[in-house]
Write a structure and sequence with these properties.
single chain; mainly alpha; Arc Repressor Mutant, subunit A; 7 helices; 55% helix; disordered N terminus; disordered C terminus
């Protein structure tokens, strides 16, 4: 994954826009995310128009939740993010990248992600035989689509003073 821009470090400088004159980098970033959101809405509307309207929005929301829980459930997102960063990796190296995951749970998550079409398993012809895991085309698409969301969330986090007064979030699980 690409490193996040350092918005909190105050290294913003104004940029020049031909239409509006001088605008800040923060305004430029906010405008970029608004444009991305609007493009995403237009895409969803086009797909919905092509497939037809959803009869039952509750059933649709429940189907979406099942997908989110299976693909982005505990350890699944961790595995996808590691594979996004390291395109092909062996089982043990992947396990060491994910702090506190047991081999059994990792094996189960890899099988689930493989069944979902997100991860592919390749047997390497060597002595002893080894296995390499990588993202499928579908996995790459999902991880790249997640990047703007993750970037938006990182950049829109509360400042340190606001975080200090709110309850501490649970400790992160997975790789550092």
């Amino acid at each position: 994954m690409a490193p996040a821009p350092t918005s909190a470090q105050g290294s913003r400088r104004p940029t020049r826009s031909l239409v509006t004159g001088v605008i800040s980098a923060d305004e430029e970033i906010e405008r970029g995310f608004r444009e991305f959101r609007e493009a995403a809405v237009r895409l969803v509307e086009r797909v919905s128009d092509t497939l037809g309207t959803v009869e039952d929005p509750v059933a649709s929301a429940q189907a979406d939740l099942r997908i989110v829980r299976s693909i982005f459930g505990k350890w699944s997102a961790d595995v996808l993010l590691v594979l996004h960063s390291v395109p092909a990796i062996g089982f043990e190296q992947l396990r060491r990248s994910l702090l506190r995951i047991s081999p059994r749970v990792l094996s189960q998550k890899l099988k689930e992600l493989e069944q979902a079409g997100m991860v592919q398993r390749e047997i390497v012809d060597s002595r002893p035989p080894r296995v390499k895991y990588s993202l499928t085309e579908r996995g790459w698409t999902v991880t790249w689509l997640a990047q703007p969301i993750l970037l938006f969330l990182r950049l829109s986090e509360k400042p340190a003073s606001a975080v200090a007064t709110s309850p501490a979030p649970p400790a992160p699980v997975g790789f550092p």
